[in-house]
Amino acid sequence: MYLNQLRNVQPYVRLGLANIQKRCYEKAILQTQKLQSQELNTNKACSASVGISDKDPLMNEIFPATRVMPMVLTNKEPIVLSFDDVPGPRALKYISNFRHYLSEIGTQLTVGVLTIALNMSTYLNTKKPLKNLSALFDEYGPVVRFVSPVGGDIVLINHPEHIQKVYTMEGEYPIRSTLDSLEKYRSEHRSLVYGGLYSVQGEEWNRQRAVVLAPLNNSISHHISGINDVCENFTTKIYNIRNYQDEISKDLYKELHKWAFDCMGLVLFSKRFTMLDTELVYSQCDMSWLYHSLEKATDAIIKCESGLHFWKLFPTPAWNSLVKYCDSLDNLIGKHVIEAEQALSFQASKDANTDFTFPTDKNCVINAMLMGEDKMNAEDISTIIMDMLLIGVNTITSSMSFLLYYIAKYQRAQRILYDEIDKVGANLSINDLSKITELTPYLQACIKESLRLVPPIPVLTRILPKNITIDRYNIPRGTLIIMSTQDASLKEGNYDDASVFYPERWLKGDAKEYHAFASIPFGFGARKCLGQNIAETMMSLLTLRIIQKYKLEYHYGDVGSTRSFISRPNKALKVRFVDRL
């Protein structure tokens, strides 16, 4: 009944609305005509005053019809877009709607399979390598949201200003992503409460960093003469193992890896390792087996961190290898730490029984950590030393490999470098680090340029402690930010001829105009690499010794870098070492 009454009422309602609309329309027409007549009278009065007739053909041009001007907004506020507006592969965004329905068992399988399968077309269309993040930036812009079907989303950035903004708000205790495989090994397999310097976060990271920083800097200064001896040993070995083409018949990267291991042995253990003189690995020799374990553990970590993370679900061959060789590393390093601790205890007991105080090597990093005010236990020290070996030896090897490659490839730069080294060779004091840097500006520029082209760690990460606006997009706290520093340093907008090895760019006056965050191979801020001084010193000394003795040549195809956790040459380095006459 009520519905029938409503149907009967509707026509009358519509008729009433029509009458109301008609009356409003007629009223508006009358008001418009009244305004036009007033305006016409005003125009006539004005035209009469200036002597213009309303029949004049120019009348309509001089006094045009009134136009409605658009409203001008003042004090315009920048538009902030939501996190959902950040561009990125659409396929993953659609799949992410089902993330809450996925089981815990299938989490890692789904992440790996969908991430690779659903984005394969993007990489194929742009003809970029699968691991090359620049393909995503080319398609979506400087801010890319990479939606994970399960877990938290990831935002990729490569613009220097955006990278700077992330660093400036990272806080007192910056949080970065860790190596999941190494963290699982320590927390579950070794049952360690704290990780090493690379993976630990918060106040514990700050405590470890404060304990290690000063001993590291003191150790590099104390052992610089020994590091120079290792560099001399390397140049001698090159002379002995060259083939008839003056090339290293074996892998040059592996020989550089042994050189870096011997140098780090001095810095960390205050012991002269001799892996450069050792060709075969002996399990009975601690030094030899330590190096072998370091190699195998590095390969296992790279395999676990790249590709599908099946090792989180069940033990894989890569995971088993990681456990085996990390156990070996931990045990061998722990043995050195215990020996140092016992030696310090023995000296302390002698000092207590005599009036003479026996000297203690405080320049040894292990001794410094054992004797510091914030004394660390042997287990924590072993974990820190393991991280330093895993990260330090591999990054320095990578950096030195590409430096020699670029010097060999760009002969003009090598001639300038040789002239500089030859000129200051007699006045160079190996024991004075600051003097070496001061007298070899072109060498330092070569190192900086090589690190710009191929930073040893191509991407840096931070987990946002609070909300941030990047390129007008609101990025929520807790989001993982991946900063592709290698893409930033290779953009033409940041450097002229960005892909060319041109050390002079750092010696010119306009070098100050480069954005400070366009090239940050050692990171920035509180979590900046602790080994920067060590790496630059080792690279400077070895380059000095090699260029003094050899002319480098390279006659093969271009060498690129892998996009794994630590960059490596993607092919064998066949550098010629020609004797200088």
Care to give the gist of this entry?
The chain has helices spanning 2-50, 59-62, 90-96, 107-118, 120-126, 134-140, 160-168, 180-189, 202-222, 224-241, 252-269, 286-305, 317-353, 365-371, 378-409, 411-424, 433-439, 441-453, 485-489, 532-549; strands spanning 143-146, 154-157, 459-463, 468-470, 473-475, 480-484, 550-553, 576-579.
Give a topology summary.
Blueprint: H1 2-50, H2 59-62, H3 90-96, H4 107-118, H5 120-126, H6 134-140, E1 143-146, E2 154-157, H7 160-168, H8 180-189, H9 202-222, H10 224-241, H11 252-269, H12 286-305, H13 317-353, H14 365-371, H15 378-409, H16 411-424, H17 433-439, H18 441-453, E3 459-463, E4 468-470, E5 473-475, E6 480-484, H19 485-489, H20 532-549, E7 550-553, E8 576-579
Helix pairs in contact: 8-13, 10-11, 10-20, 11-15, 12-13, 13-15, 15-18, 15-20
